[in-house]
Amino acid sequence: PSNPKLQLLRYQGKWLLQSWVPGIIAIQRGGFAPRRGGGDVVLASLPKCGTTWLKALAFATMARRAHPPAGDEQHPLLRLNPHDCVPSMEKLFAAGLGSKIMDALPSPRLMATHVHHSLLPASITDNPHCKIIYICRDPKDMIVSLWHFVRRRLPEIPFLELFESACEGRCLSSPIWDHILGYWNASKTRPETVLFLRYEELLHDPADSVRKLARFVGQPFSPEEEEASDVEDIVRLCSFEQMKNLEVNRAAGLSPALQQNAYTNGSFFRKGGTGDWANHMTPEMAERAARRHRRREAPLIRPLFLMI
Length: 308
Ligand code: A3P
Description:
two-stranded antiparallel sheet; sulfotransferase activity; 6 strands; binds adenosine-3'-5'-diphosphate; 308 residues; transferase; alpha/beta; EC 2.8.2.-
């Protein structure tokens, strides 16, 4: 695309935003050192698969002692976009701010990445002190969400063009399937350090996912917290309606951390549901997208992608 902010680059077989690549290289070269015993948590996702929601839920859960999810008018999630509460590693490192900001974060640190599992260094993927939480979404809904997102910058881009490039493995974070499968496999081989969540399950039963997340990061809800409905308060605080309508997320103004992307805080909240693909794809297109993602690793796809 002509917009330099959206320029893609093929790096180690993956299509990535060109602006991320210097950050990825810095991370691969050891720029990010997990804290021993510090309980670092990396939130991983394909773009448009619920990153913003996962950032909000994980932040609210892990910070709940300092910031109770209800009755705290100064709660960071009421004042900041979730992307400003949980930094994106490749963007920070690309801006040369990685070590400075990461070092300043209190333990357990919470950060995020859109990078494929195979591109992350062993210091993250093979480290008992560093946990990964992945959020997966039906790729058809991801493609639709991505189109709406990209359209804010490139209003003229036809849906068919983005659909084709996604099917051919040439769109942002392609190959999509490699991205999902990398984290899926890791969650099977190292379940103690990789948790695999699905956007659709979060929608269906957000409280269950929040409890799962809290247990995974070693901060399960106590009987007192359950009694006080803390889980439900976190779900409410991070719900689509609540987040979308917050002043900070409605304002057209950009937060400094998001400025480099040239999107507004509101760009991250659109419909917040499942199945919007049906409003954009013919049954033949949907079948083609599913086939594309079914082509490899066929036995795995059944349990992983029953929803496609
Ligand atoms: P739609 O475009 O389908 O509405 P990401 O955060 O990875 O960029 O993903 C954005 C998608 O997640 C968008 O999907 C957005 O509306 C949805 N989303 C953002 N916050 C959400 C929330 N709190 N609950 C549910 N969905 C949310």
